[in-house]
Amino acid sequence: MPLDLRTCAVIASTGDALLTRVYPAPPRPARTAFQRDRERIVQSRAFRRLAGKTQVFTSRSSDHFRSRLTHTMEVAQIARNVAARLGLNEDLAEALALVHDIGHPPFGHAGERALDDCLQRHGLRFDHNLHALRICEHFEQRYAAHRGLNLTLGVREGIIKHSRDYNAGLHPELASYLLDQRPPLEAQIIDLADEIAYLTADLDDGVESGLLDIGHIRDHVSILADSYTAVHLQHPGVEPKYLFNEALQLMQNILTDDLVHTTLANARSIGAKTLNDIRRHPSRLALFSPKAEGERLGEKHYLHDTLYSCPELTIEHDKAEEVVKALFDFWIDLPGELPQGYIDEIASEGLARVVADYIAGMTDAFILQQYALVKRAVRR
Ligand code: MG
What we know:
The protein is an all-alpha fold. The protein has helices at residues 7-14, 33-42, 45-49, 68-86, 90-99, 108-120, 128-139, 153-161, 185-209, 214-220, 222-234, 240-269, 275-280, 290-308, 311-333, 340-343, 346-349, 351-360, 364-379.
């Protein structure tokens, strides 16, 4: 039996502020506030650009790799499933999953590291959660009456807090987001749904790329090895690549079931009955069990050691860093070369932040195009 933790029910009974928007929006028939947020996110430009951003592999060697958009859709499926089974608000969970990577720059984590390095030289940092909030509150311009997507407080809070806690002293600008409290469970499950999605997908794409070998994975990743053995018993004589696909699905189901059961047990153990109980608890309740957490960490280390840091991807990461840093320096030196909309922001935001904002929004293809143009201009 799921706990009665449904955010909407709690909001309805307590007048919680999660549904409020900065600019009041009249209700629409047959669509909840979080359904409308989901639509606003899917219709945003930043969401569409996720199709052109690297998850782990660029699309140059295969059409089958995940992009950040298809990764996002996989996270949304898992989050919605987990939310439904826990009796949470599925629409809020889905909206948060769909927006969770919207602040990522081009070239995956290599692009993020490069942009952060550039900003640190100016005393600033790049944080993709905070950047996602800037996109949703500031950069998206779809409405006549205001800037931004005017999302509910529940979604905006979840954008910031879904994967980490922020120190109120270091981030006074986030004071309205209750930094001393845990986020609702719909936000807490997003980071774990993200983990489940990429732990499955990166093994899959790793084998597709030829950089990982099914036998090697079975020898080193216990949760995949156990899943493979189980599906092999069910389907003797089937080719390894099909057994591997089945094993990936079983592994995803095992982790998803574990997240549901562990989170439910944690909520029950503190006697949680309302959203306030979740918020006031000193730590997050959405967790994997110790066994699944150990397996998750084991696989994560394996992916790091054998895939993310392999020579083939290191070459791509080095190239990504070179491109990001060269463009950042170019626009710092020649801010007049930025598009006019960004030049207009320099007075209020500062040049380094504006250059980072411009670069962070780019797709892989667009930033490479800009890099080629700048290199040509510099040579002249
Ligand atoms: Mg993600």
